[in-house]
């Protein structure tokens, strides 16, 4: 974890960002390149130092309002699944919707690309980091603003996000949301005397709502414990894979291996 700034460092960072962002009117992306840090880090520093963001004042603002992206007009099961993905491994950058996946999730990255195209009408891009992790992303200021209005934030842990209320309006929405969330923040594994399915997240309100969702779907989840919820009844885990139908192949393969023991 990075160390805290000293008061002198904080003043220096504040003056630097005010000069670049306010007086020189540089964009967050331009500042990131100048300082050698990620756009998200620049955005977080602006928030931390209390410097208001004003993207509409930047010369590139109009160009970021793409005309080819479809902003959702109604709630659907596919959208519920994508919210599950976003509340698991997704994030909002200043101008992008991003899902970060592991080194062995190439197949699932393709599924996320397909889902984003189905929902938003354009192809998402995939960037592979030096570590092998994959960022599936779509640049659209309008889309980022829409997701913020729907309750998503730039820092999910700090602001303790929750599941949107509309997802509880239909059983198919609940199933789809749980699928997306399990695909990104879930796991299934063998215990010495059984099998366990888990969901892990650092947002307490989200986990409490997820537990409620599982109860409404007829499961018997554990209480929230150390940022986790568990399903341990074998018949319910089998039903989970049959009815929720996880899209992440790594979960399906692992569960098949457990059943075949």
TrEMBL record:
InterPro entries: Homing_endonucl (IPR027434), INTEIN (IPR006142), Intein_endonuc_central (IPR004042), LAGLIDADG_dom (IPR004860). It comes from Candidatus Sungbacteria bacterium RIFCSPLOWO2_01_FULL_59_16. Gene3D superfamilies: Homeodomain-like, Homing endonucleases. This is DOD-type homing endonuclease domain-containing protein. The lineage of its organism: Bacteria, Candidatus Sungiibacteriota. One of its GO terms (molecular function) is endonuclease activity. It holds the Pfam family LAGLIDADG_3. It comes from the Bacteria. Residues 82-219 form the DOD-type homing endonuclease domain. One of its GO terms (biological process) is intein-mediated protein splicing.
